[in-house]
From TrEMBL, chain A:
Its main location: endoplasmic reticulum. It comes from Dekkera bruxellensis. It is found in: Endoplasmic reticulum membrane; Membrane. This is Dolichyl-diphosphooligosaccharide--protein glycosyltransferase subunit WBP1. GO terms for biological process: protein N-linked glycosylation via asparagine. The chain crosses the membrane at residues 413-435. Component of the oligosaccharyltransferase (OST) complex.
Automatic annotation (TrEMBL), chain B:
This is dolichyl-diphosphooligosaccharide--protein glycotransferase. The gene is STT3. GO terms for cellular component: endomembrane system; membrane. InterPro entries: Oligo_trans_STT3 (IPR003674), STT3-PglB_core (IPR048999), STT3_N (IPR048307). Its cofactor is Mn(2+); Mg(2+).
Amino acid sequence: MQLLKAIFVLVASVALAEAKALTQKVFSPYALTNKTLVLYDVRIQDDFTSQYSQLLQAIRSSGSDVDVKRIEPDSAIALFDDYEQRLYDNLLVMPSKSRLLASNLDFKSLEEFSRKGGNMLLLTSGQGSQTDVSVFLNQLGIYPSPKAYRLVDYHNSNNWQLGVDKIENPVFLNPHIVPEGSQVSELAYENGSAALLAGNEFIIPVLRAKETSITYDVDRGFVGSQSTWHSGSDGFLMLAHQARNNARVFWAGSDTFLADSHFQKDLAHGIWRWVSRVNGVLKSDRFEHTKVDRDGLSLAVQDGYKVKDFCKFETAFSKWNGTAWVPYETTDAQLEFIMLDPYYRLNLTLDGTSNDSALYSTTFQIPDHHGMFTFKVDYSRPGLTFLKQYSVVPVRHLANDEYPRSWQITNSWVYVASFFSVVVAWLVFVFLFIVSGKKPLASAEKKKE
Amino acid sequence: MLCTVDKEGYIRVDGRLLAAFKILLKTAIFVSISFAAVSSRLFSVIRFESIIHEFDPWFNYRATKYLVTHSFYKFLNWFDDKTWYPLGRVTGGTLYPGLMVTSSVLYHLLHKFGLPIDVRNICVLLAPAFSSVTALATYLLTLEISDTVKGLRFKKTAAFFSALFMAIVPGYISRSVAGSYDNEAIAITLLMLTFYFWIKAVRHGSVFYASLTALSYFYMVSAWGGYVFITNMIPLHVFILVLMGRFSYKLYTSYCTWYVLGTVMSMQIPFVGFLPIRSNDHMASLGIFGLLQLVLVANYLKRVLTAEKFHRLMIASGFLVFTLGIAAIVVATKVGLIAPWTGRFYSLWDTSYAKIHIPIIASVSEHQPTPWASFFFDMNFLVWLFPVGVFLCFQDLSNESVFIIIYSVLASYFAGVMIRLMLTLSPVVCICAGLCLGRICGIYMDFRDEISAKAQKSASRVFSLVSKLLVSASVIFYLYYYVQHCTWVTSNAYSSPSVVLASKLPDGSNTIIDDFREAYYWLRMNTAEDSKVMAWWDYGYQIGGMANRTTFVDNNTWNNTHIATVGKAMSVGERESEVIMRRLGVDYVLIIFGGLIGYSGDDLNKFLWMIRIAHGIWPDEVDETKFFTRDGNYRVDDLASQTMKDSLMYKMSYYRLSEAFGGSDPVDRVRRQRLSRPYAESIHLDVLDEVFTSENWIVRIYKLKDPDNFGRDLVSIGEENLAGKSRRALRKLTRTKPDTQLNLL
């Protein structure tokens, strides 16, 4: 009873904390400028700020100022300052029919922005898929269906001629991007496009197209192998990408689910917080290894490893909860001990938690092989910041005085004994030779005489 | 009075004065010989600077620095984490420490005396210093031999001649010029010293000299892998003497003392360890040790038994011992108790063995068979005095001259097989030539008969005077010519540090090509301290020594697979190579390219060895024939095979070469082939960035690009960028369905 009560309190407090986090002003630990640039095309959204006020509100609530600009091919938009530093943390690009995003922006600028750590929420739709945005997405391995294609689903849509306008009971594939709690029964997805994937390990599927859906070229007017873009579940409606430097990109094939008319707060907040690196952010402040004895106690003298030493490895993981670092607990973190190939791949066990981090450790014996070994922790999970840490240590061979001495090896006793017996025998022989050698010689000489 | 004039008018000089004068004269001769030996080796220091030469000396230098700054035990247990990344090298246990210990002892000694000389200068000048000791040891050895040669009138003349020859013979100078800080620099000295003590021990049957032999043998073992030569020479000498019926207690005493002490001492060197009782190379000395005991027993039995009984016993036991011995060796080798013969050993008997089976040995130029011309080049007129000297030894056949005969036969054979073994031939050639010239001098330079008052008939007197003058004049001319030749060879062929190259400008003025040091210095100053540089193994020691950066393979070619991995990374295409390089942890790639300036020792000329070595491990992935054109030519121009054009080494060599020729077709001056400009411009690199190219393009350094931030394939990015598509094309591209087969990648 007591236990149940305690659990209840715990659950309630967690729920409360999460609710609090939603309303409280959260921010990203990686925010540099606290600014978000929103680009929209006036030809598609004539009154963007009022149509998407809730989205803008969501952006503001995650600690970022919003800078809304129109997409105009003739005017310049500065993404970087004179020193090539980012001016914005995040970039949101609405579907656009425009030839250019701005006179000075092309897909290379988007790449550069991401390379410098900027995050992007890129929306395309059947109405508008801007070339630079598409090229950039193509570079990531995301191939959204172009303008003329229409997403249809003959089995689940009432109005199959006009295509899909909503997805019922969507199954979101990544809990870090769309939290479990924010499942929706119906997702507005008007004028949608679907994307194909080309192998890129950094892509995180978020929403798969229904098995019964296809995209086909409306201009060709018929459905055939030549005119379809995707068919069935090889298409995706929402995709995320986290680059090596942890910069995030989120793509959706429609913008309607973010509009005020269909706004679903949890979903939109979840996605934006993931994109702007408020959610799903991990860090590790600790990466230590120490020489220990057989029982795991740290040794006073830390003078580098030799073969068959014992080693304790420690690391700590923290997670950003929106306002502060909290311990991140997991059971699937591993340490690799590598020289060309992993000699060990060990599970890290949770040792305990501090205020802001969970401490993991493992103790193991270094293999009987000298060389340059790498301690490596590669905790890369889709939707979470990549944690990649490594350090190289030399593991030396045994020194000349570190082998067991001969008398400690029972096998050698017979040899040691024979050695000493030869020495003794030799000494005895020499002694006898000296003492007894002369007499017969003298007597022989005497006899001769 | 020290000096008086007697009644007959002769000057009588006191014996003590004469002795003092003799000593003074001998000292003067030695000082001059030493001076000649040292000064002729200083060309490189004067021409260039006090710098460590070539490849291996750089490692020895680095190890010496380590020894000087750390304790001896630290050095002995040194685990080098800057080479053979990520394997590391147990350096302390895989080197011959004699050289480093010698210079570090000298270093500390000089510092004790208040002479703060830099380690580098000690290392640079160690070889010349030891060469004068070699001359002295050769003198002593020849003196021992000439004592037993009956026909010689002036024993010391022969010895002095051989010392002089040894001091400046180019075959020895080639390995001992200032800066050539290699094991051979002190090993030849020790070789001579060991042989001297051995001859002395055999002559006197002295335990003392045999122990000295063992001691200097130990020093030799600690200094050079070539100690195996002694390990087999001495037993062979003893064996032949026994066969000649020269068995004596003197021989027995000296051999057993040497063998037991020498073997036990040599096993103290970590690199040698248990080799003396496990390796086939050492079995001969063990066998002779056993044989001597049997001979001793036989000698005893001979005294005890009747002749007939003894004869029968000898035949029976001889047969038994022979079969048992052979069987034991075969069984022990098969079981694995004795290490089988190494490839290096086989290549001594069959010169084409290495080429077929162990490309890594054959790839070293100094392991090639010797061309005939280099015998003259390295020995000059000693080449034809040498057989005469051997003939003199045959005439006499004392125990000592038998040794010289064996030495000359073995060394001649080995010098013919491997060019580097010219080094071991040089001393015996000098000794034999000294004996020969000593004989000639004894006969033809002795004018006492001619000028003495008691002369014979005047006609024959003139005749013999003329013939003597003629012979002496020609000998003196040859000697003069020898000195000339040695000086010329030393100055022109053996005094180049190979780290710094000398060259002539079109107008005839001299210029120094210093690309290597420029590049290594760049690496040292511009890369992270823990960055790892991949280069072909020839440059491993230099990168470690001069740039102080971690290398993957180096001149200590202990791990063939690792070398083959680097060879494979160089010879396959970019995509495949990237995988290998990332696995190894490569940061930079360094190559040598001589095509622009015409430096023929570059990597493209060594490329076939990289391919062959890689082929040895991965026969399916690297195929040598594919690097040749269809008609079997090694081409690097437009007509090169596609595999060649795709290989990383090729691309790194010719990347941006067209820019150096400003508009005209680039020409490879080493391979004398012309690349067309459009083709040369199309050579591009996707996974590497060029970060440094030295003044004459000899050294080019590339950096492995970081993996793409967005997870794309670096090669395909390169291909896309190259296309340089227009916006229109881009738009079209976004509207074409991708090939989803890519998903399978």
